[in-house]
Design goal:
The chain is an alpha+beta fold. The chain has 3 domains: 91 residues, Pseudouridine synthase, CATH 3.30.2350.10; 133 residues, 2-Layer Sandwich (Pseudouridine synthase), CATH 3.30.2350.10; 57 residues, Roll (Archaeosine Trna-guanine Transglycosylase, Chain: A, domain 4). 21% of the residues lie in helices and 34% in strands. The chain contains 8 helices and 18 strands. Strands 1, 2, 3, 4, 7, 10, 11, 12, 13 and 14 form a 10-stranded mixed sheet that branches. Strands 15-16-17-18 form a 4-stranded mixed sheet, covered by helices on one side. It has a two-stranded antiparallel ribbon with strand order 5-6. Helix 1 runs parallel beside helix 6.
C-alpha cells in the first residue's frame, strides 16, 4: 500500500540563514512545518553557536543533499586568543588561559600559511563522529576521551580579516569534513597562546553563497500570513546545486529508457565524470555518470 503523504509534495532548495542558538535539525523542522512539506533534509550541520548558510532541501531535492554534503565550504570565524575550552568553542568551559603576547598581523599570516593545502586533522571529542556506535560528544559529556583517527582535509585559503587585541577574525575556505573549531585551536597553539572559536558564520556551500539567504523571521512572517505561494517562490531549482557538472540533454526515447534505470547515449557527452541530465523538453531528470562505454548511466534520479 502506498505511503500516505503527511504534507505537500513540494520540491526545491531554500538557502536559510540559520540563527544563533538553534540546532540545524531544529531549523530544518521549522522550515518543513512552514512549507507544510512532505519531505525535508539539510546539507550538513551547523553547531548551535554557528550562524549562516544552511541549504534546506525539500521533496525530490533531498536526493541532492548528499552532493552538497561533499561540497566545499567557507566560514567567517572569530577566534578568541588566550583561552582554551573543553569544546574548542565558546560553549565549553575554559580549561586554560595564557597571555596573548607578540601576536601581530605578520605573525598570524605566517602561521596561517602552515595550514594551507592538504592536512591531517583530528576530529574533536565534541563532534558527531562515531566511536563503536556512540557519538563522540556523548562520550565527551561522560568525561571520556577515546582514540580517534585523523581525517584528510584540504584548506584552500585562510585570510586574515582583522586582529583586535585578543580577537582574530578569519575567512576560511575548506573542504568537507573540516572542523573549524579544531583549526582555530591549532592556530592558537601555533601562535603560542591557545584559542577557541568565539563566533562562526558559514558563507558558502558548494555553488551557493550567502547573497540569497533568507532568515527564519522572513519565512515565519510569510507563513503566518498563509502565503505558501510566496514561500515557494523562495525555492531554488534542484539542479542549481549541481551546476559544477556539465549538462547532457537526451532525446525522447533516451529519456524514457534512462528513467527505467538504463544507460543511454546522447548527441554530446563528456568523456567522463558526473553530469546533470535533462530530457528533450529541458526538464531536469537527475544526476548521472559517464560509464566505461561512454554512455550516460543514471545514478540519482530527481523527478518531481
Amino acid at each position: 500500500m502506498a505511503r500516505r503523504r503527511k504534507g505537500r509534495n513540494i520540491s526545491g532548495i531554500l538557502l536559510l540563514d540559520k540563527p544563533l542558538n538553534l540546532t540545524s535539525n531544529g531549523a530544518l523542522q521549522r522550515v518543513k512545518r512552514l512549507y507544510k512539506a512532505d519531505k525535508a533534509g539539510h546539507t550538513g550541520s551547523l553547531d548551535p553557536l554557528a550562524t549562516g548558510l544552511l541549504p534546506i532541501c525539500l521533496g525530490a531535492a533531498t536526493k541532492a543533499s548528499a552532493f552538497l554534503l561533499d561540497a566545499d565550504k567557507r566560514y567567517l570565524t572569530t577566534v578568541k586568543l588566550g583561552e582554551k575550552t573543553t569544546t574548542a568553542d565558546a560553549e565549553g568551559d575554559i580549561i586554560e588561559t595564557r597571555a596573548v603576547e607578540g601576536v601581530t598581523p605578520q605573525s598570524v599570516t605566517a602561521v596561517l600559511q602552515q595550514f594551507i593545502g592538504e592536512i591531517e586533522q583530528l576530529p574533536p571529542m565534541y563532534s558527531a563522529v562515531k566511536h563503536k556506535g556512540e557519538r563522540l560528544y556523548k562520550l565527551a559529556r561522560e568525561g571520556k576521551v577515546v582514540e580517534r583517527k585523523t581525517r584528510h582535509i584540504t584548506i584552500f585559503s585562510i585570510d586574515l580579516i582583522s586582529l583586535h587585541d585578543d580577537l582574530l577574525e578569519l575567512d576560511i575556505h575548506c573542504s568537507k569534513g573540516t572542523y573549524v573549531r579544531t583549526l582555530a585551536e591549532d592556530i592558537g597553539e601555533q601562535l603560542g597562546c591557545g584559542g577557541h572559536v568565539a563566533a562562526l558564520r558559514r558563507t558558502l556551500v558548494g555553488p551557493y553563497d550567502d547573497s540569497a539567504m533568507v532568515s527564519l523571521e522572513q519565512l515565519q512572517s510569510l507563513g503566518h500570513e498563509g502565503e505558501l505561494q510566496a514561500l515557494d517562490q523562495l525555492l531554488l531549482p534542484i539542479d542549481s546545486g549541481l551546476v559544477q557538472w556539465p549538462a547532457v540533454k537526451l532525446g525522447a526515447d533516451a529519456s524514457h529508457y534512462l528513467k527505467q534505470g538504463q544507460a543511454v547515449t546522447a548527441s554530446s557527452i563528456p568523456a567522463s565524470g558526473w553530469v546533470r541530465i535533462y530530457d528533450h523538453e529541458d526538464r531536469f531528470l537527475g544526476a548521472g555518470i559517464i560509464d566505461e562505454n561512454g554512455m550516460v548511466a543514471p545514478r540519482r534520479l530527481m523527478l518531481t
